[in-house]
Amino acid sequence: MITLAHISDIHLAPLPPVRWTELANKRITGYLNWRFKRQASLSGEGLTNLVRHMQDQNPDFTAVTGDLVNLGLETEANTAYNWLQTVGDTASVCISPGNHDSYLKPSFGFNAERWGDYMRGETLDEAQFPFVRRVGDMAVISCSSSVASGIGFALGRFGPDQAARLSRILKLMGEAGYFRVILIHHPPNLEARHPRLGLYGARLFRDAVAEHGAELILHGHTHKSTIYAIPGKTGDVPVVGVAAAGAAQSEDTGEDPARYNLFRIERLGTAWSCTMREFGFQRLSPDIVLRLSLRIY
């Protein structure tokens, strides 16, 4: 049996000191948003306890679906690297980066230089994404929807080249008999996509899954706990989103309190068994509790 933990949207707090010259761009809106809104809803309180609780479950592998930082500052890259080391080493943790990790065009470079080993694995060619991490019978396939965008936008992109590589990987891993888990920051949900916030290229992503199949898709971005499905090769593929790990448990933020998901995956003959448990805070309680237990397969 393999245990997979999923955590997302860390938004590490507090912000480091910011020079005014670093705000003469898109960062000014993010900075103001932080000061007047997210400083309360994403205060970072409880994150240490949430990670400790997750580690007490002894996961074999941990998937982080992006948004470790806030404004894409170079100093934030160092903070994110230090936090990642508390979660696990590069052999047991991997990342699918989010829009905040590419807040400006240079931001992804800062992050890739500092904690890029968490965003690497087996690849088909020189392209970084998608990459594969194999853990027993499980193949974790990390895609990237991380891209810099304009003021007021938090969109993601998934282009034809990455879609072609994902198709080949899904085919290869499927033929080899792996339980295929795809990571992507933005949800591939066509029904709920938003022109400023959604995933451009979601149809390409879904076409690859429909043609070659997958067993599970994990994402973040929405800061909400969600479960739905998209068509796969032999049936629907579960798509699970997790609430922001950096969220406070205040009742007036409009976002779900901080949570993580834990999956237990096991091969039973020619079939799979997969159960999901969601752990997190209550609205008005400092305790981390089991909020949901669900059998997926």
Major beta sheet summary: 6 strands, mixed
Helix content: 25-40%
Q: How far apart, in Å, are the first and last alpha carbons?
A: 14 Å
What is the oligomer described by this structure? single chain
Query: What order do the SSEs take from the amino end to the carboxyl end, as H and E?
Result: EHHEHEHEEEHEEHEEEEEE
Strand content: 25-35%
Catalogue the unreliable spans.
Answer: none
| Number of structural units classed as domains | 1
CATH architecture: 4-Layer Sandwich
CATH fold title: Purple Acid Phosphatase, chain A, domain 2
Structure class: alpha/beta
Sum up the overall morphology in one term. Answer: globular
Put simply, the count of helices is: 6
Number of strands: 14
Based on CA atoms alone, the radius of gyration comes out at: 18 Å
Supply the CATH class. Answer: Alpha Beta
Mean pLDDT: 92
Report strand order across the widest sheet.
3-2-1-12-13-14
How would you describe what is shown here?
This protein has 297 residues and is of the alpha/beta class. Helices cover 26% and strands 27% of the residues. It has one domain: Purple Acid Phosphatase, chain A, domain 2 (4-Layer Sandwich). It has six helices and 14 strands. A six-stranded mixed sheet has the order 3-2-1-12-13-14. The protein has a six-stranded mixed sheet with strand order 4-5-7-9-11-10, with helices on one face. The mean pLDDT is 92. This is Metallophosphoesterase. Belongs to the cyclic nucleotide phosphodiesterase class-III family. Keywords: Hydrolase, Iron, Metal-binding.
